Amino acid sequence: MIRKIIHVDMDAFFASVEQRDNPDLRGKPVAVGGSSRRGVVAAASYEARVFGVRSAMPSLTAQRLCPDLIFVKPRFEVYRAISQQIRAIFFEYTPLVEPLSLDEAYLDVTENLKGVESATVTARAIRAAILEQTGLTASAGISYNKFLAKQASDHNKPDGQFTITPDMGEAFVAGLKIGKFHGVGPATAAKMERLGIRTGADLRLQTLEFLTEHFGKAGPRFFAIARGEDQRQVNPDRERKSVGSESTYFDDLETADAVERAILKQLDDVWKYVERNDIAGRTLTIKIRYRDFEQHTRSRSTAAPIQRKDEAAQIVLALVRGAFPLAKPVRLLGVTLSNLERPGSVAPMQQQMSLGLD
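^ thats the sequence. predicted structure below, dont judge the formating
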């Protein structure tokens, strides 16, 4: 059976919510995030993107690119509530929903609950329902596998959709620049270009042996997607395998006491999630980024799951004290708990989760 997969991606989600809720922001370049010298853009409106403003960009850089940029503080509880509202719409059509983040998800509508045979029609109906119920626009990609559905959702953004049928798959991939492939990051794209692989057509010319030699475990995946093939199923039961929190500080932390207090605050954020979801983990990792952007991570794993906050605090403090005395001021600290499991369970959980701006 040919599967029918939809990838739904909300358009500039955080920024669009802010423009929806504040009419004065509509039609103006908006960045969700902090405007301070240490701020980072969490999301940018399409008006801001015209100037080159992008998510994860330092706020100072964004301001230089767009002097009229309006910064708005993020309201994550609002975004989460709207995300749940959107997800409820998805479940009206199929139980096979795989959320990727607050603003995007895969849906398998091969046998959808509405009895609509056309995935293209289904995607259009879902987008209309999202607009009617939330006042926000969504884009969608429709295809016979996840890779192509994801690629298609970027094709007619914003507020559009695009369908890649089975007879279009190989030709569509052949025409893609390698840097546009979902899952191919800048470093991999640069390596491919050095090897003369600049398009999907170039990728398809390579043998499985060649791709495995140069890209290891990713080689077989590149071999398959170059032919428009992706056997991954929409998985509604993906579970988290890590939870983390990190902060960039307005003023650098210059003393051991300040660093210890700050790292325990990051642990507090992580532990709230742990307690709310009744989980435990076996590995704690801290991240330290200094003023000059040099970065180090330190980890410790335990034989048994860490189920008490005081135990976690002892480990985190021991890890961060390994960096004392401070060689230079600290601008960012983070804590991650991984190898998660439910108490009494031996099955590790599967999906990574990061608190904060993600």
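The first strand starts at residue 5 and ends at 10.
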